[in-house]
Amino acid sequence: MALLSVNVDHIATIREARGIDEPDPVLVAGMAELAGAEGIICHLRRDRRHVKDRDLSLLRKTVKTKLNLEMAPVKELVDIALTIKPDVVTLVPERREELTTEGGLEVAGNKEEYKRVTGKLKEAGISVSFFIDPNPDQIKESLSAGADIIEINTREYSEARSESDISRQFEKVKEAAKLASKLKLRVCAGHGLNYVNIKRFSSIPEIEEYSIGHSIIARTVMVGIDQAVREMVKLVSQF
Ligand code: PXP
């Protein structure tokens, strides 16, 4: 049985659209846990465009399942992780101009640095996950850099449009999951997964957890708009 971890970055993005204090990703995280999420994920970006340090501190105090901090492997954020001590740190590459994480880590080219960061985090009792593309070399390099977990980047799969490309990208993810599992790495997957394209994954038992944000927050709007409008209509209709 695979588990779901919910990424709450988009709740913070909506809040930041107004620069006020709602909606609060911390409250939404609690609600996601009540609905059965087995983990909460947030990405503390260097530019703090959505999740803030305040959110991370409060999430650490309130998340009862598992807190997974996505971050670039840079000193400022490593120091924060060592202080906050999330259950898991997922190392991701980060480009300032990107809308969302674009690709996986390039482990081979940065191996010594990633090894050092991973060692520090693990020493503090934090599990370390590497977000990587479904590529055998990246998997082997992640293992040798000390990763406990790999998160397979499903972006290319989720963006594929023709049936042949979808199948090709899916097979890459499947092969990557099998190899990682054989090497005794724990396997997660995420990026661009939604209520339709996740269905194929029933054939990859090696993936123990899915990291999903956008499609769940988009669904929140769709399934929540009816009640939200009804409540406001009722209020104004009393005037
Ligand atoms: N995994 C990683 C490493 C990510 O950066 C993201 C996006 O924040 C996700 C998973 C979730 O992707 P999505 O929001 O498309 O579900």
β-strand percent reads 15-25%
Query: What's the helical proportion of residues?
Result: 40-55%
List ligands, each type once: pyridoxine-5'-phosphate
CATH superfamily: Aldolase class I
The CATH architecture designation is Alpha-Beta Barrel
Topology:
Blueprint: E1 3-7, H1 9-18, H2 25-34, E2 39-43, H3 53-62, E3 67-71, H4 75-84, E4 88-91, H5 111-123, E5 127-132, H6 136-144, E6 149-153, H7 155-159, H8 163-182, E7 186-190, E8 209-212, H9 214-237
Parallel strand pairs: 1-2, 1-8, 2-3, 3-4, 4-5, 5-6, 6-7, 7-8
Helix pairs in contact: 2-3
Give a written overview of the molecule:
It is a single chain. With 239 residues, the protein is α/β, with parallel strands linked by helices. It has a single domain, classed as TIM Barrel. Helices cover 46% and strands 16% of the residues. The chain is built from 9 helices and 8 strands. The protein has helices at 9-18, 25-34, 53-62, 75-84, 111-123, 136-144, 155-159, 163-182, 214-237; strands at 3-7, 39-43, 67-71, 88-91, 127-132, 149-153, 186-190, 209-212. It has an 8-stranded parallel barrel with strand order 1-2-3-4-5-6-7-8, surrounded by 7 helices. β2 (39-43), α3 (53-62) and β3 form a beta-alpha-beta unit. α2 packs parallel to α3. The chain is globular and about 65 Å long. The mean pLDDT is 97. Bound molecules: pyridoxine-5'-phosphate.
